[in-house]
Amino acid sequence: MPFFTYKGRDGRGEAVQGVLEGADSGAVAGQLFGSGIVPLEITPSAPPREKNEFLEKLFNKGKVSHTDVLLYSRQMFTLLKAGVPIMGALKGLEDSTDNKRFAEVVRDVRESLDTGREMSASLARHPDVFSQFYTSMVSVGEQTGRLEEVFLRLFEHLEFEKFMREQIKAALRYPSFVVATMGVAIVVINIFVIPAFAKVYQGFKTELPLMTKVLIGFSNFMADNWYFILAAFIGLAFAFRAWTASARGRMQWDHIKLRIPIAGPIVLKATLARFARSFSMAFRSGVPVTSALAMVAGTVDNVFVADRINRMREGVERGESILRTARDAKVFTPVVLQMIAVGEESGALDDLTSEIADLYQREVEYEIKNLSAQIDPILIVALGIMVLILALGVFLPIWDLGNAALGKK
Predict the structure, then answer these.
(1) How far apart are CA 122 and CA 125, in angstroms?
(2) What pTM, to 2 d.p., does this model score?
């Protein structure tokens, strides 16, 4: 069917324009009237150009960041609290954002509202931008008449999410950098340093120590087969990505991440802090416990923990207490379980889960500050062993040569 460009005015008299597909101009006019728009001009148009997703990603125009949604939530709260109509608020946000992709999303939400859809349904049209938790909370706000309050809570929730993600990255950045540096050092030593010493040792015409033979043999292997080693590492990287992309592999990897020495407990606490904050927010907004657990399972960004939360929901649906299901999940500390028990008995579960989030957040911040103190001894020992092996392999032949020159052999 052909496309038509239209210009018209909506129910508030604001000018609108766009492109629609229809059998003829009359059919397009019928669509516009049905959506509450009075058409002023309808002309034949060429089909809209398809977007080049590669170029959008290349210039970062096809991605909506976490910060964009965070600022959107804050601005919506501010505008609604000031009494600005939703359509006017969305128009202002569309014009003020620097992200072209997000501006298109806001425009689509505004046009969807024009057709009579609710805000939550309009946001749900963009699941890659607004999560199911986000749209569900907006739906709760619409049903309870507390939409502006929900947007404020969503802003606080997204701000907390951003903080915890940065904390997790900080926890993993330091050990990853050190391990990568050690790997590069090993490669450089084996390809450039040891071969230089090997040429010197060839002129000794004497039996080399075992450690030296091992180092030279490993160095020769790396120098002669570096392309196979590189191909193997690339293959392992692709295999790892394929494994983590599968449902079973992602579950296993997310479980392994939580068991990594030192960094694993920090990641677990940060993940549970996000769960507790999300659950507190949903429960405080009037969402039933089972629905709240189902909603927040997708916010923890860890498939293993999400599976445990879903098991908690199934247990609550069977009539079990939240405390029992949380104990069976085997991811919460005794102190947290005690707080859940008190919250369940007192009816202040939302306040207690919020305190749990604060508790985990403080622990994560403290452990990240002391992360280097925990990792440094391990790294020092590893570096010491590597230096010892290298020193013995390189200097034992020189020591033997010196002894021979002094007539001690």
Answers:
(1) 6
(2) 0.63
CB-neighbour burial class of residue 110 (10 A; exposed 0-12, middle 13-18, buried 19+):
buried
Distance of CA 171 to the CA centre of its chain: 14
Residues 375-387: pLDDT tens digits? Answer: 778 878 887 888 8
**CA 165 to each of CA 154, 177, 370: distance values in angstroms, whole numbers, following the listed order:** 16, 18, 18
User: At a CB cut-off of 8 Å and minimum separation 6, what does 26 contact?
Assistant: none
Q: In which residue are the tokens 């020189």 written?
A: 398
C-alpha atoms less than 13 angstroms from C-alpha of 347 in its C-beta half-sphere: 0
Q: Under a CB-based contact definition with an 8 Å cutoff, are residues 162 and 67 in contact?
A: yes
| 140 token code pair | 């709760």
DSSP structure class, residue 50: P
Structure tokens, 230: 């590189």
315-364 per-position pLDDT tens digit: 988 888 888 998 988 888 888 888 888 888 888 888 888 888 888 888 88
Cβ atoms of 333 and 356 closer than 8 Å:
no
